[in-house]
Amino acid sequence: MSKMRVAQVTRPNGPLEIVEREISDPGVGSVRIKIEACGVCHSDSFTKEGTWPGIQYPRVPGHEIAGVIDAMGIGVVGWTLGQRVGVGWHGGHCGYCDSCRRGDFVTCQIALQVPGIAYNGGSPNT
């Protein structure tokens, strides 16, 4: 299996470490992005400092992502291999909680998906 380099944090207030990880296949309904650029901004301090409730480590920060779709999971529609994409702070929501029903997806109370917090982001060394 192929490998990639990532900058990860292994614990709250831990250092950023460059490590190699296996490249996994995307899950159902998901795409995998070959990262071409990624910003790490102040809100990534939630990951670095461990101030976001429920964050699991190790975690790769970075939610300002640009790249190309290089693999697609089962059930993906509307996207194509090789398509250029960008990912920001908001990476998904539940659609059912009070916030989502108001259209305020960024404050989802059940399944807010923030790259680099809820799942691995696109650290600059990916």
Q: What does this entry show, briefly?
A:
The chain has 126 residues and is mostly beta strands. 7% of the residues lie in helices and 29% in strands.
> Per DSSP, what share of the residues sits in E-state strands of 2 or more residues?
25-35%
Helix content: under 10%
**End-to-end C-alpha gap:** 16 Å
Give me the Rg, rounded.
15 Å
Q: Number of DSSP helices?
A: 2
Give the overall shape, derived from the CA principal axes. globular
Summed over residues and divided by their number, the pLDDT gives a mean of: 91
Largest sheet descriptor = 3 strands, antiparallel
Q: How many strands appear in the DSSP assignment?
A: 5
Order of helices and strands: EEEHEEH
Q: Which strand order spans the largest sheet, edge to edge or round the barrel? A: 3-4-5
Question: Structural class given helices, strands, pairing?
Answer: mainly beta
Q: Pick out the low-confidence regions.
A: none
What does the model show?
With 126 residues, the protein is mostly beta strands. The chain has 2 helices and 5 strands, in the order βββαββα. The chain has helices at 45-49, 98-101; strands at 3-9, 16-22, 31-39, 64-72, 84-87. A 3-stranded antiparallel β-sheet has the order 3-4-5, with no helix packed on it. The protein has a two-stranded antiparallel ribbon with strand order 1-2. It starts with a strand and ends in a 25-residue tail after the last helix.
